[in-house]
Amino acid sequence: MSLLAIGSVAFDDVETPFGRRERALGGSATYFSLSASRFHPVRIVAVVGEDFGPDQMRVFEGRPIDLTGLSRVPGRSFHWQGAYGYDLNEARTLATHLNVFADFRPDLPAGYRTSPYLFLGNIDPVLQLEVVRQMAERPKWIALDTMNYWIRGARPALEKVLREVDILLVNDAEVRELTQEHSLLKAYRRIQAMGPGVLVVKRGEYGVALFTPEGHFAAPAYPLEDVFDPTGAGDTFAGGFLGYLAWIDRKDVTALKHATLVGSVMASFTVEQFSTERLEQITQDEVRNRLALFSDMIRVEDL
């Protein structure tokens, strides 16, 4: 069984107060798969250009990541350029070159169409719905990420695909724009009416909030001494969160709470270095040890 992920594999130019990287490996499917594959096999559907070479492919080697669905077509790969100030919660986009991603139409390999778990990364909701319709059978759960661009510019299509979704992962600004509610509790009720029963609100350095029909949960961000680059942290969180759920094959509230901690820990590794550098290096022992420390940190003894 595998976790199928649809998204982007790209190059990033990133500048923060602590350094700069040019043409570093990026993209939602990249961060997601490197994180999720720590817990469960992943299949990627994405597109790259002729400039995506062996050095980039090597990052995926030796991991349970199936790249059969990664298409290489003539042209240049998706390329994002952004910068952060000392407030690392929000990037300033300097340029976005869609390149081959502009014509991306996900076409699932036959073997992918029975994947039991599906993650729809942040792409056009029309394409997200096309992916759902290509599945030979409905997955056990479908999770989706989106952004303000699609909420504002493609809302009818987004509302249509949300009816098919079990888990929505967005940040607090996105959920408030989608629901027109400032209160996250009220926003969750509106999200439930749209389709998803589970809402995960990513809040950057302020942590994450989880809303389910059985109860709610909140966790802080894992405290770090050094943060160099937050690019990809949200996709890394989603990878850890959904990879863990696929591994244990459960979606009850206890499993979702544990998945929230796992996603937060995986995201904490990403921001410690630029691009995917830290994700490429971490060991299973480091993940287990940080998760144990994080669990102890937020546990409160009975009064």
From TrEMBL:
Gene Ontology MF terms: kinase activity
UniProt feature coiled coil, ranges: none
Pfam families on file: PfkB (PF00294)
Annotated source species: Geothrix rubra
Keyword field contains Kinase: yes
Keyword NADP attached: no
Carbohydrate kinase PfkB domain span: 42-276
Protein's name in the database: Adenosine kinase
Classification via SUPFAM superfamilies: Ribokinase-like
Lineage of the organism: Bacteria, Pseudomonadati, Acidobacteriota, Holophagae, Holophagales
